[in-house]
Structures are given as structure tokens and as C-alpha cells.
Amino acid sequence: QVQLVESGGDLVQPGGSLRLSCAASGSGFKAEYFNNYAIAWFRQVPGKEREAVQCIDSVEGTLTYTNSVKGRFTVSTDYAKSTVFLQMNDLKPEDTGVYYCAARTPYVVRAQCPDHPKYSDFDYWGQGTQVTVSS
Q1: Residue 60: what pLDDT?
Q2: Rounded to the nearest 5 degrees, what angle is found at the Cα of 105, between the Cα atoms of 6 and 44?
Q3: In angstroms, rounded to a whole number, what is the distance separating the alpha carbons of residues 50 and 42?
Q4: How many Cβ atoms are within 10 Å of 109's Cβ, its own excluded?
Q5: What is the pLDDT of residues 43-64, one digit of tens each?
Q6: Do the Cβ atoms of 99 and 125 come closer than 8 Å?
Q7: What is the pLDDT of residue 28?
Q8: Is 63 helix (H, G, I), strand (E, B) or coil?
């Protein structure tokens, strides 16, 4: 089993910044294999379906799924800490929601970020962290 724990969500004014963290651990997780996973950030806003935001893996690099965050959000990895970050700048009220990280398990080869992500593409999920952008 792999456990994912998100942190960093907060209330922030429009134009502000936050950095979310997703730390991996668990009985089925080994730190030296962390870069074999694909890790994605999803968000769920009120009244809408959960949507994929960005993803990172060691095969393709990074993918941005949501056009509205391009140039504002950046996903990165600290392998020493088995942690993936989502740096969010110039936050807008539309960015409000619960942000989740999700891990796609490697099998024979390293896991890759899917081009058209679905819930079922990811094997482990964190419990989410609330981001609220409001004045």
C-alpha cells in the first residue's frame, strides 16, 4: 500500500500563491522507487467533476491538463523527500476547490502520465487539501 498525504491548502486572496505538497509513504512504498510512479494533481470545485490539473513522471516529464493554469501552476518533485509539489501562483477564485494528489503504480515499466486521465488510471489517492481563493 502507498499512502499519500497532501498539505499546504489555505485561504488566500486573488493573486496570491500557495505551494501544495504530496508526501508518499507506506508499507508498499520504497523511496528509491519513487520516480517510477506517475503523480498527478486533481482538483474538485463545487458543482463540478474532479478534474486533472497536472502530472509528473520520469518518462514524459510534466503534463498540464487544465489550460487555465498554464503559466501559473508548476508541478515538481523532491526525490529525497518522496514529495511532489504543486506551486500555484496568481491564484484566482476559479482555482478554489479540494486538491488531491494521486499515484499511478509502476509495473513492468515506469508509470507514465496518461494523456486523458481518469480516476481509474491512478491507484492511490490522498484525502485532499482545501484551497480557497477569495477576497
Answers
A1: 86
A2: 40
A3: 7
A4: 8
A5: 999 889 999 999 999 988 999 9
A6: no
A7: 85
A8: strand
Whether 42 contacts 53, CB under 8 Å: yes
Contact yes or no for 106/33 (Cβ under 8 A) = yes
The whole-angstrom separation of Cα 46 and Cα 56 is 25
Cβ pair 7, 129 in contact under 8 A: yes
CA–CA separation, 54 vs 77, rounded Å?
A: 12
pLDDT tens-digit profile of 63-108? 999 999 999 999 999 999 999 999 999 999 999 999 999 999 998 8
- Measure the CA–CA gap between 46 and 90, rounded to whole angstroms: 20
| The dihedral formed by the CA atoms of 85, 89, 92 and 98, expressed in degrees to the nearest 10 | 10
The answer to whether 48 and 68 have CB atoms below 8 angstroms apart is no
Quickly count: other Cβ atoms within 10 Å of residue 5's Cβ: 15
Closest CA to 34 of 12, 56, 8: 56
User: Nine-digit cell at 124?
Assistant: 492511490
Average pLDDT over residues 23-28: 92
